[in-house]
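Let us begin with a simple case.
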Amino acid sequence: MKKDIFLLTLIMSLFSGIMSAQDIDSIRLAHILKNLKLDKTKIKEELCIEKKMPNVEDSYIAVIPVVLSQEEEDYVFTVQNYILITDSNGTIKNKYLDPTELNSDAVYLRSFAIDTGLYNISSNIRAFGVKADFVGSSKPNPYAYGSISMYYPEGKTLKKVLDQFELDSTRGEWDTRCNGEFEDDHSYIIIEPSKTNNFTDLKIKTISVTTINEEVKGECNSKETSKTTYKTLKFKNGYYH
């Protein structure tokens, strides 16, 4: 039973990015692409997302993945993201081309999600996150992970303060029947009262669960252990480290 529960949890984790997808309005997307002087053949339209900013009137955060390379296989590609803030018509207020290139191959880039949590990282600065969701294709070696980058508006552009920090990961090795070992890590960002260089410290709480399955007399027995660890990211040289 424990093995079945773990596999269900694993499947839910692997598909969480799809379930939480944030679509983009087609009319607004058309206006955005016109303003960026891009056509749909130059982007990964299925990965485009947007979300209403909860703290700013008539403002939407949008993520537009621009294709840098594409192989014949649909899942093999490289993208670079435009991170934008637009109004309801798609007029761009803030524009930032993230220099980080994201590769999709054996570990597939499945989705993005926008996180508008209360990331009050400095006086009058509220950041937002863009999460990238990746998943592997191996059944005997399941693997998935999610990372977050963080930005805030600055003038007519955006300032990036956190780059592809891994929040979640699921990995394992098993015989596809029972015997095997799985590791599942989930991290949470906690806003600290302390500051470094006038920016709030970020405490990372990580809960790590290890599950070992072993077949004994035809039954699949599971043993689960967990531990919680903490680390703190401080703002130095323009980024959280």
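The second case is a distinct protein. As before, the sequence precedes its structure tokens.
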Amino acid sequence: MGFRCGIVGLPNVGKSTLFNALTATAAAAAANYPFCTIEPNVGRVPVPDDRLAALAALAKSAKIVPTQLEFVDIAGLVRGASKGEGLGNQFLAHIREVDAIAHVVRCFAGGDVTHVEGSVDPLRDIDTVDTELMLADLDSLEKRAAAAAKKARGGDKEAKDQLAAMEPILALLRAGKPGRAFRPAPEQTDPVRQLQLITTKPVLYVCNVEESSAGPGNELSARVAARAATEGASSVVISAAIEAEVAVLPDEADRKAFLGSLGLTETGLARVIRAGYALLGLLTFFTVGPKETRAWTVRAGAKAPEAAGAIHTDFERGFICAETIAYADYLACNGEQGAKEAGRMRQEGRDYTVKDGDVILFRFNV
């Protein structure tokens, strides 16, 4: 399990440039005109994790397999998209299918790329996109609420539960606030998720800045960060131009040297991934052996059988136990055998909650 993240924003803010850099491909056309990305481009990228190399070295693994994330580059949205303007209908259909939204916002002035609004104002751009998404959700939800209300009056319990989840979100949307501002009670979580609304998806604002501001950000990205904080959203600073340059460097040493020359210690991809993990509440566990060291992703709070199921459904179905070593213990004990001898390997049952960095061997029987 990873996550499917849709890269959205107004035309010409750096979405496709970022996508190309993230996937190290030229699959998405990054041209200086609106709608250069007609269909959503999908790229799977490995999650960088230094722990993999350390584990593989101790286990003398033949190969390393990182976990993967999926990014979807979605056509630029313009005013009126909720009414079908531009490529609005395609945009809205594709964005409903993702787990989270990476909203790219232009936070640099100048340059050769024309801003679709004629000037650079990231908060205005966020409002433009948010308004279209809220209008789309409002239109969809009002129709469904009317149908649910009719069934609820007939005594349909499921319709009553749906209506109870819809009504507070409808109130927010009518007040010009996104659905994610609603904090559902535990029993409302599933009904809200089943509504598949765009504005209830978690949002990561990706502030695309000029190269000189790639580390500290700038005044415009600071305004976006403040906006994100008020919404309970996240934000990261990235220079799509730098990422594009890094992506074409074939050697890891060259990439590190290039980043170092700019005062950076990591790529923007690493920052986006970390923020995305935090946004969706994901964690990584490992399987380690002589054939391979592999990273797997599950939701935070996942029990051992669910983690086993991330590898294979048979592992979950026939789960017996999880032989578990914490990452720090695996390194400190010089590998699996040392951890066993030191009593640092634990046999965990069905109720064990997987921790980030756990090295696990699943025992199962089917």
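Residues 170 and 359 are 44 Å apart (CA to CA). The chain has a mean pLDDT of 85.
Keep these points in mind for the review questions at the end of the chapter.
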